[in-house]
Design brief:
The protein is of the alpha+beta class. The chain is built from six helices and five strands.
C-alpha cells in the first residue's frame, strides 16, 4: 500500500511540475488526472483482491494441512488395526492347526484304546469261567463293567486294568478259600488253597479226603476239575499247616494231577 501511494504522488508531481505548453489546456490536465485516478483505483482494487486471495489461500492451506494431518493419523491407526487383525488371524490359524493335530492324536489314541479294549474283552470273556472262584467273586463288578457295552470307554478300560492287576497279583500268591465241591456225587464244604491261577489243593473239614484241582480244558463245560487223592494226604495237610503258620516252612513234594477220576465242582 505504501508503494502504491508513492507511485501516485510521483505521477502527480510530474504532472504538476511539467512545463505547460501553450497548446495544453486545463481540460487536458483534468482528463489526465482522471485517467491517473482510474488507473490507481484499478491498481488498488487488484492489490486488494490479490491480498484477499492470499489471505484466503493461507487459511485454506492451514485447513488443508490440518486435514492432511488428520488423514495421516487415521491412516496410521488403520494400519495398526490391520496389523493387529492380521496378527490375530495368524494366531487363530495356529490355534486351529494345533487343535486339529491334538484332535487327530486323540482320535488315534481312542482307536488304539478301543483295540486294546476289544482284545481285553475277548480274552477275559474266554478265560473268566476258568478263573479261581475267589478271584471271580472279588472282581465280578469289574468284569461286568468291562463287558458292559453301554459304559464309556474310559470306564471299561479302567475295569480292564483292575482285572489285569488283580489277576496278576492272584497268580503270584497263595489264596485260601472255602467252597462247596461235588465229590463222588455229594456236595462237600472244603477248604481250598489256590497256588496261583492254575492249581489248587483242597481238604475236607474232617480230614477224610484231600485232593487237587486245576482249570478244565476247552473240551469240557466244567470250570475246574477236582480230583481226590488221599495218598497225598500228608503232603497236602502239611501245605495247609505251613500256609496257616501252624508249623515251620519246609519243602513239600506235591503229587502231580492225575488224568483219571475227575469229579465235578459246583
Amino acid at each position: 500500500m505504501q508503494c502504491n501511494l508513492l507511485i501516485y504522488m510521483l505521477l502527480l508531481l510530474v504532472f504538476l511540475t511539467a512545463p505547460v505548453r501553450a497548446e495544453s489546456s486545463s481540460l487536458q490536465r483534468s482528463e489526465q488526472l482522471q485517467r491517473t485516478d482510474q488507473l490507481m483505483a484499478k491498481k488498488l482494487a487488484l492489490d486488494k483482491a490479490s491480498a484477499e486471495l492470499s489471505f484466503n489461500w493461507q487459511k485454506e492451506q492451514a485447513s488443508l494441512l490440518q486435514l492432511k494431518a488428520n488423514y495421516q493419523a487415521e491412516r496410521q491407526l488403520l494400519q495398526l488395526k490391520l496389523h493387529s487383525a492380521g496378527a490375530q488371524s495368524d494366531d487363530a490359524v495356529l490355534r486351529r492347526q494345533s487343535l486339529a493335530k491334538e484332535q487327530a492324536k486323540a482320535e488315534q489314541t481312542t482307536v488304539e484304546y478301543q483295540t486294546l479294549l476289544t482284545q481285553g474283552v475277548a480274552s477275559f470273556t474266554q478265560s473268566w469261567p476258568l478263573l479261581p472262584e475267589p478271584l471271580k467273586r472279588s472282581q465280578l463288578q469289574e468284569y461286568r463293567q468291562l463287558t458292559n457295552e453301554k459304559a464309556e470307554l474310559a470306564q471299561r478300560l479302567t475295569a480292564l486294568v483292575h482285572l489285569l492287576e488283580a489277576t496278576n497279583s492272584f497268580d503270584q500268591t497263595f489264596t485260601l478259600d472255602k467252597q462247596i465241591l461235588k465229590l463222588n456225587g455229594q456236595d462237600w464244604q472244603a477248604e481250598v488253597l489256590y497256588l496261583g491261577l492254575a492249581k489248587a489243593l483242597f481238604r475236607l473239614p474232617d480230614g477224610s479226603h484231600v485232593g487237587m484241582g486245576m482249570p478244565a480244558g476247552k473240551t469240557t463245560t466244567d470250570t475246574w476239575h477236582w480230583q481226590v487223592n488221599d495218598d497225598a494226604q500228608e503232603e497236602i495237610n502239611q501245605t495247609f499247616a505251613i500256609y496257616l503258620q501252624q508249623q515251620k516252612a519246609s519243602l513239600v513234594t506235591l503229587p502231580l494231577f492225575a488224568q483219571g477220576g475227575l469229579h465235578e465242582k459246583e
